[in-house]
Specification:
- This protein is α+β, with helices and mostly antiparallel strands and 164 residues long.
- It has a single domain (33-163), classed as 2-Layer Sandwich (Alpha-Beta Plaits), CATH 3.30.70.
- The chain has helices at 15-24, 59-70, 109-130, 154-163; strands at residues 37-44, 73-77, 80-86, 89-93, 99-102, 132-135.
- Strands 2-3-4-5-1-6 form a 6-stranded antiparallel β-sheet, covered by helices on one side.
- Helix 2 packs across helix 3.
Length: 164
Amino acid sequence: MSIPQSGSSEPIENINQLAQYLEDGCKPKEDWRIGTEHEKFGYCKDSLLPLPYEGPRSIKAMLEGLRDQFNWEPIFEGENIIGLKRGGANISLEPGGQFELSGAPLVNIHQTCDELNEHLREVQTVADGIGAGFIGLGAAPEWTHDQMPVMPKGRYKLMTDYMD
């Protein structure tokens, strides 16, 4: 089911109408911002297998460590910690347990670089403490579907049930 759209339902009949529609959606240059999206897979350093959601060396332990050591605010679904937020930035979980930093809206690329470097330092600090590592890939070519952890998010359960 699609999301109902707002605005005119009249069809665009010429290029000038299209150009005006696009221009009306533009922000003034002084309001432009950029943001970082950075995805990474966590793994156990001794086995090179993906981090499970629960346990002493896990996705949950990583989220709790970032919360406790670096003042991130937790995001819960039921009793499960599924993300973090701080200062306009979020850390969310992707279906295979990937951490995704969605950075705050920032003014320039130097700020996004600083934000990402701080995030990676924090992740490495917590990961080193539990024997985990992270690799910045969008896919895990060495792991099978059965090896991938299932995240305790309702929408991912729906996806998993449908795809299995």
